[in-house]
Write a structure and sequence with these properties.
Elements (H helix, E strand, L loop, with lengths): L7 E4 L2 H14 L5 H21 L14 E6 L4 E6 L6 H7 L8 H7 L4 H4 L1 H5 L11 E9 L8 E6 L4 E7 L5 E8 L9 H11 L7 E9 L4 E10 L16 H11 L8 E7 L5 E7 L16 E5 L2 E5 L1 H4 L8 E6 L6 H5 L4 H23 L3 H18 L1 H5 L4 H7 L3 E2 L11 H7 L7 E5 L3 H5 L5 H6 L4 E3 L3 H8 L2 E2 L2 E5 L13 H13 L1 H10 L6 E4 L8 E4 L7 H9 L10 E4 L4 H6 L6 H15 L7 H19 L1
Parallel strand pairs: 2-8, 12-14, 16-17, 16-19, 20-22
Antiparallel strand pairs: 1-6, 2-3, 3-7, 4-5, 4-7, 5-6, 8-9, 10-11, 11-14, 12-13, 15-17, 18-19, 21-22
Length: 640
């Protein structure tokens, strides 16, 4: 018997109160989802016990048959979901139940749109499926004991979903977790065996352990069904991935994804394959239709589950798939791996390496099917995929040398061919449009599409009708550092090194430019003396047609955009100065040739303007403004 002194009253964080209120009153349009979420949690608890039981069989205590039990009580108006899985300790209850979405509650609220249909998937996305219980219940009681602890170490958690919960130590003879939902007055439809059966079969038929309920028997006296004493298994209790593909409906595939992916939306695409030969294993892998909030957290692993002969081993995407495919969800079940594989994975395992390579091949093949399909539905799916996961896929160019060419073929960009933000230009598209004399793939990196489109470095390329790829994602600097060529064509930044258009440049035009450059060489030398602390060199350029000047990085130096990205991340960067290139056809540069009094000011103005044009920041903005105003005022007075 517990006394009031044993009960500890605790509060959710302020954001959690908002979340509970939101879920109860507006977020879910499909109330029956609560049962699927609680059954999924129970299934995960059984998986964890199977895994820990591989090295400590005593955790099974005297109950080796894992199952999930669902019961209801019309008089008490409760639904109970219980399992004999791993259970939780007191601290695990506080961490996993007492703290709502501890890794992303604030991001959760930032992601809400107010549209129920769109917001529903966020519950699974942020790991708060347990709290869906409050959609139908005005009080939830959870009683649990972790396997291996004594009966006196049971824990009871209780909350009315109003911002507070109680926690007390209780005696619990059996390991595992029991969740009791005290239903709201308007939720009597769930106090019905047929209703609960249909929900379980619809959403949880694929769960790999039995979900049992007491059989209902017809009672002539009350003219109603009554709950009997005999158990019956409601679900098929068979692994969906082990069944023949022709026996699985698209709806069943979708429902299994929602379980394994903790998602409320169907997947974008999936692949189900059985690999036979030297090594036998089955893959059921899914590409989600939207990115999770923690997509760019490379340390967070919860994507693909590994089973050995249907026994859960681990949930570690780092070993089963490379980091750039961390968005993939699903299961891999091997017939050949030893059950103690978890210890081998921590070291080296050729078997795991083989499974990993095969899984990468399947996923890339699935993406390639979407990318190359002529069907409008698949084309739209690929657009969705690229929008959600394109930046992550780009990481694969650096990480996966064996598949670099395949990944590069899937990359999509915006280019000067059209410049609409939704453009999907592949490297193959670019090569197909290259001019006959062109031997390079030209690109520019910038911090945003507008910055790339307005870069002065593009002027000569636009004039000559040469397409340039506009790389605007932060990952693009990392990408081009590792993708030096594609299909035999080198990639060339238009903002690094000397402008070399090769055969695209006219010979007579070259000769005229060389002569013109000689005429302005003294000017360039004089400017270099003035700007020696800011630039490595000043030289004449013909890459500009409208702007007076631009900054370029030396061929082997770090570009300005990458330097700014690294500095913003707190990284140290090597000291290097840009090269200032000036346009001899521009009136400002031509005037400088005859300027004496304000030569230094005009030179600094040109440098500062070039720095701003490429997205850089001025060291002394106030001096720039004063210098510019003085020169403008001088021109106004001279005109008068």
């Amino acid at each position: 018997m517990q006394t009031a002194e044993n009960v500890e009253h605790m509060s959710f964080q302020a954001e959690a109160k908002q979340l509970l209120k939101l879920m109860i009153h507006s977020l879910y349009s499909n109330k029956e989802i609560f049962l699927r979420e609680l059954i999924s949690n129970a299934s995960d608890a059984a998986d964890k016990l199977r895994f820990e039981g591989l090295s400590d069989a005593a955790l099974y205590e005297s109950d080796p048959d894992l199952k999930i039990r669902v019961a209801y009580d019309k008089q008490a108006r409760t639904i109970t979901i219980s399992d004999n899985g791993i259970g939780m300790s007191r601290q695990e209850v506080i961490d996993n139940v007492g703290t709502i979405a501890k890794s992303g509650t604030r991001e959760f609220f930032n992601s809400l749109t107010g549209d129920q249909a769109k917001d529903a998937h966020l519950i699974g996305q942020f790991g708060v499926g347990f709290y869906s219980a409050f959609i139908v219940a005005d009080k939830v009681t959870l009683t649990t004991r972790r396997a291996g602890l004594t009966a006196e170490h049971g824990v009871r958690w209780e909350s009315k979903g109003e911002g507070e919960f109680t926690l007390e130590t209780v005696t619990k003879q059996d390991r595992g977790t029991e969740v009791v939902l005290h239903l709201r007055a308007e939720e009597d439809e769930f106090l019905n065996g047929f209703k609960l059966h249909s929900i379980i079969r619809r959403y949880s038929d694929h769960i790999t352990l039995p979900i049992v309920m007491k059989k209902e028997e017809w009672d002539e006296e009350s003219k109603d069904y009554r709950i009997g004493d005999e158990d019956e298994t409601i679900n098929q209790a068979s692994a969906i991935w082990a069944r023949p593909k022709n026996e699985i409906t698209p709806e069943q595939y979708d429902e299994f994804y929602k379980h394994v992916g903790h998602d409320f939306e169907p997947p974008l695409a999936y692949v189900h394959a059985k690999v036979e030969g030297k090594q036998e294993y089955t893959q059921l892998l899914y590409i989600p239709s939207h990115a999770p909030f923690d997509l760019f957290d490379r340390e967070h692993r919860h994507g693909v589950k590994l089973y050995v002969k249907r026994v859960f081993i681990m949930d570690d995407a780092e070993k089963l798939l490379p980091g750039y495919l961390r968005f993939v969800r699903g299961v891999i079940d091997s017939n050949d791996l030893p059950l103690n594989v978890s210890r081998e994975i921590l070291q080296e395992s050729k078997d795991i390496d083989s499974i990993r390579a095969g899984s990468v091949k399947k996923i890339l093949g699935l993406i390639e099917e979407l990318a190359s399909s002529d069907q409008s539905e698949n084309q739209e799916k690929f657009r969705t995929f690229w929008k959600e996961f394109g930046q992550v896929l780009k990481e694969g160019v650096a990480e996966d040398f064996a598949n670099r060419e395949r990944i590069a073929k899937l990359l999509r960009f915006v280019s000067t061919h059209d410049e609409r933000a939704e453009q999907m230009v592949s490297l193959d598209d670019y090569i197909a449009r290259m001019k006959p004399e062109q031997d390079k793939i030209y690109y520019i990196t910038a911090d945003g599409l507008k910055a790339a489109q307005s870069s002065p470095h593009l002027e000569i390329f636009r004039k000559k009708g040469i397409e340039v790829l506009l790389l605007c994602d932060r990952i693009d600097e990392w990408l081009v550092a590792h993708l030096h060529e594609y299909a035999g064509k080198p990639l060339q930044s238009v903002a690094k090194g000397d402008l070399d258009l090769g055969k695209l440049a006219d010979e007579e035009e070259k000769k005229a430019q060389e002569k013109e450059a000689g005429d302005f060489q003294d000017l360039a030398t004089k400017m270099k003396e003035i700007l020696s602390e800011q630039v490595k060199d000043v030289r004449i350029t013909f890459r500009l047609t409208e702007s007076p000047a631009c900054l370029v990085a030396d061929l082997h130096d770090m570009g300005g955009n990458l330097e700014r990205l690294l500095k913003s991340a707190g990284q140290k960067v090597p000291d290097s100065k840009p090269i200032l290139e000036i346009n001899p056809h521009h009136p400002m540069v031509q005037r400088l040739k005859y300027e004496e009094a304000k030569f230094s000011d005009w030179s600094r103005i040109l440098f500062d303007q070039a720095l701003l044009a490429e997205g850089g920041q001025l060291e002394d903005p106030a001096s720039f403004v004063k210098r510019l105003n003085d020169l403008l005022l001088q021109n106004v007075l001279s005109d008068n």
